[in-house]
Design brief:
This protein is of the alpha/beta class and about 425 residues long. Helices cover about 30% and strands about 20% of the residues. Strands 1, 2, 3, 4, 5, 6, 7, 8, 9, 10, 11, 12 and 13 form a 13-stranded mixed beta sheet that branches. A hairpin with a 2-residue loop joins β1 and β2. α3 packs across α9. The radius of gyration is 22 Å and the shape is globular.
């Protein structure tokens, strides 16, 4: 594995890890791009964590890494700045800078011959390796898949929305968020457990204060000003848990692990995502959503829902629209610029409702020339081939992150193979 710093900003380094392919020597020969480097397809993966926590090693999908590495892919897992105090705009900037770094024509990764060796690389590409037998790989810029789980799926969408030269060849969204932000899940306060049955959090607790926006209390002090989150800028917030001796064994010790749930509970997630707290974007959208719910006739619920979404999207300031996939993806699909997309989602997901993947899939289906539909539990696969397509695989009864469960390989190994086969076929122009 090679660790590379791809940018330095606001006093922090932002890095990615690159894993070499796992292949017999005679299968590792790709197209020569320099005098000694072989070009290989690549998967660029973004971690989950609600955009608020995690790093390039968090929730690492071994099943995905193993299968693509064995097919000759470079596997890249990347960090990005976390909210707060960063916003979705900062994350887009990081993704664009990562993409520029990875698609540079002269980029070459040099690996020791020993697979377990680790190399550190600075932002100028220099590396340290003491092994005389080295392997040199470049990225085939026409064969890059962007992927992510949960919030990382949103990052994959943002990459395809904002990185065009070259465009990603395909997208893999593992229960990805962002397919439909115009719902009560994001903009409405919760009064009962909603997130995997877990308890509601105390938004006023002192421990959360550095991560929250504080509006002025003008009744107490007419001169008081609002205060933005004071948390330090970071792109690396590893997962940590309390020991078994804690009063709640295994409870998150890193407060950032609770932030996305807190913002969803308060109905303010989109304020932190966009950075628009005053006036609150979430409150504005909430009013429109509630108004629609009160005036909707059950006989025309579908049409009313479509009109509500349009009204809500139209109310978002233009500077933020680039953060909302359901606003940008239709434009990309119509122009033929949206990559083939595969969605894998559990139907009982309470962290990211399956409707998010269904919504984005339906947008591509309605506007693109062809689409693929599959339901894992029924073992049905209806395939239509096209340059702009979508494949939705729903896994019945499964919650968030089901693919990381200890028995996931045994239960869903065939589904994992289906996903990898399809994406690999797209990259190699077999589909």
């Amino acid at each position: 594995m090679i660790t590379t710093c791809y940018k330095r900003t606001q006093g922090i380094d932002i890095s990615f890890d690159t894993y070499p392919p796992i292949l017999p020597h005679d299968l590792a020969k790709g197209d020569v791009t320099t005098e000694y480097a072989r070009a290989l397809p690549a998967m660029v993966f973004f971690h989950g964590g609600g955009l608020t926590v995690g790093n390039r090693k968090s929730w690492f999908p071994e099943w995905l890494y193993n299968r693509f590495s064995q097919r000759g892919y470079l596997f890249i897992s990347a960090d990005y700045r976390l909210i707060p105090p960063s916003t979705g705009h900062d994350i887009v900037e990081d993704i664009q800078d990562l993409w520029k770094y990875l698609t540079a024509p002269d980029l070459v990764f040099t690996f020791p011959s020993t697979p377990k060796s680790q190399v550190n690389v600075n932002s100028q590409g220099g590396s340290a390796a003491d092994d005389s037998r080295l392997r040199h790989y470049a990225i085939d810029r026409s064969a890059i898949i962007v992927a992510g789980s949960s919030a990382g799926g949103l990052c994959a969408y943002l990459c395809a929305m904002n990185c065009q030269l070259p465009r990603p060849k395909a997208i893999l969204s593992l229960y990805g968020m962002g397919g439909d932000f115009m719902t009560s899940h994001y903009v409405s306060p919760k009064t009962s457990p909603f997130f995997r049955g877990r308890e509601l959090l105390g938004g006023a607790d002192p421990e959360f204060q550095e991560f929250q926006f504080h509006p002025p209390d003008l009744k107490a002090d007419a001169t008081e000003r609002s205060r933005l989150p004071t948390a330090r800028v970071t792109a690396d917030s590893p997962l940590s848990y309390h020991p078994r001796t804690y009063h709640i064994p295994g409870y998150p010790a890193n407060l950032r692990m609770l932030l996305a749930r807190l913002y969803l509970q308060l109905g303010t997630y989109l304020d932190y995502y966009t950075g628009q707290h005053e006036p609150s974007l979430s409150a504005k959208l909430r009013v429109l959503l509630l108004s629609s719910d009160q005036n909707t006739n059950s006989d025309d619920a579908s049409g009313a829902r479509s009109e509500t979404v349009t009204t809500m999207l139209d109310s978002i300031p233009e500077r933020h629209l680039s953060l909302f996939p359901q606003s940008i993806v239709p434009q990309k699909v119509r122009s033929g610029e949206w990559p083939v997309t595969v969605f894998l989602h559990g139907t009982d997901d309470t962290a990211v409702p399956v409707q998010e993947s269904r919504n984005l899939h339906q947008l591509i289906l309605a506007l693109g020339s062809h689409s693929t539909v599959a339901e894992a539990e029924k073992e049905e696969d209806i395939t239509r081939r096209a340059s702009t397509g979508s494949k939705l695989i729903e896994v019945s009864g499964e919650e968030h992150s089901f693919d990381l469960a200890p028995d996931a390989e045994e239960k869903y190994g065939k589904v994992f193979v289906e996903v990898v086969d399809y994406l690999d076929g797209v990259v190699r122009d077999r589909i």
